[in-house]
Each structure stands twice: as C-alpha cells, then as structure tokens.
C-alpha cells in the first residue's frame, strides 16, 4: 500500500507528555477525529487501528520517556486510507517485522500482525538529526 501522506485531506497532530495517560488521550483523540472525518467507529479497521495506536504510544511512554518528555501523534485520513504516526525523541529505531511463528505476540509484534493482516504498511522514519523517530502505520479503509 503506497500512499503519499501529504495527499491525505484530513490531518490532526497531538503532542502529549510521555506519561501513561497519553495512551488513553491518544485513543480518545483518534476516535473524535475519525468521527469528525466521517469514518464510523464500527468500521472494521478502526478497532485494530486503535489497538495499534495504543501499543505504539505505550512503547514510547515505556521505552523513550527518559530521552523524550513528549510524544507526538499524527492522525491522517482520506476516504480510503488511515495513517497514524507516533513520534518520540529517542534514537532507537526498533525493527518492524512480524511476530515469530509460535512466539505469541505483544508490543510491536501485535502492531505488525494487525497492520499486515489489514493489508497495511509500517515504517520507521528517523528524524533528520538522528535523535528521534516516527513509526508510521498506513491502513486501507
């Protein structure tokens, strides 16, 4: 799934403190944005997208908070595409690969299983200075 993110007509950016409450606020904001953009919360991609978002924000809060006091979430959509990004200022760029067979899933394994299962894509983009990254998830609607 190749999408030019700048071509998506709907966009919202939210920056929160890297605290556990960021997970709930990121999900609630996603729900509000989706409704505003006319994407029903019963759409089959929405629950997995919210789970993906929760896992990514949780990872930033757990693993990057010491280096990144804030986490930024980008929500973007069109009538046939939903994109989510979670950005922090920790330099580690986790490998994005599917879960190992028989290993169960958690964290990024869950993110990748859901993303690939929906026909979506995932990519890690480093900041220009190498001191942070964004994980972008794109899902078809």
N→C terminal distance:
11 Å
Radius of gyration: 14 Å
> Considering the protein shown, what is the CATH homologous superfamily?
Histidine kinase-like ATPase, C-terminal domain
Main pleated sheet: 5 strands, antiparallel
Q: Overall 3D geometry?
A: globular
Report the top-level CATH class. Alpha Beta
* Series of secondary-structure elements, N-terminal to C-terminal: EHHEEHEE
Domain Histidine kinase/HSP90-like ATPase: 16-108
Organism: Streptomyces caeni
Keywords: ATP-binding, Kinase, Nucleotide-binding, Serine/threonine-protein kinase, Transferase
InterPro entries: Anti-sigma-factor_SerPK (IPR050267), HATPase_C_sf (IPR036890), HATPase_dom (IPR003594)
Summarize the structure.
This protein has 141 residues and is of the alpha+beta class. The protein has helices at 21-36, 46-64, 108-117, and strands at residues 10-17, 70-78, 81-88, 121-126, 133-140. The radius of gyration is 14 Å and the shape is globular.
């Amino acid at each position: 799934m190749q999408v030019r993110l700048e071509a998506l007509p709907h966009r919202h950016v939210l920056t929160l403190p890297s605290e556990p409450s960021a997970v709930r606020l990121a999900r609630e904001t996603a729900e509000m944005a989706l409704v505003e953009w006319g994407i029903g919360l019963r759409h089959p991609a929405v629950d997995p997208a919210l789970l993906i978002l929760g896992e990514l924000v949780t990872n930033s809060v757990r693993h990057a908070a010491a280096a990144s006091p804030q986490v930024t979430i980008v929500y973007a959509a069109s009538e046939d595409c939903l994109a989510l990004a979670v950005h922090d200022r920790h330099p580690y760029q986790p490998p994005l690969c599917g879960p190992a067979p028989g290993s169960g899933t958690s964290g990024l394994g869950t993110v990748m299983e859901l993303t690939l299962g929906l026909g979506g894509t995932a990519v890690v983009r480093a900041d220009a200075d190498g001191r942070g990254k964004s994980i972008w998830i794109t899902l078809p609607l």
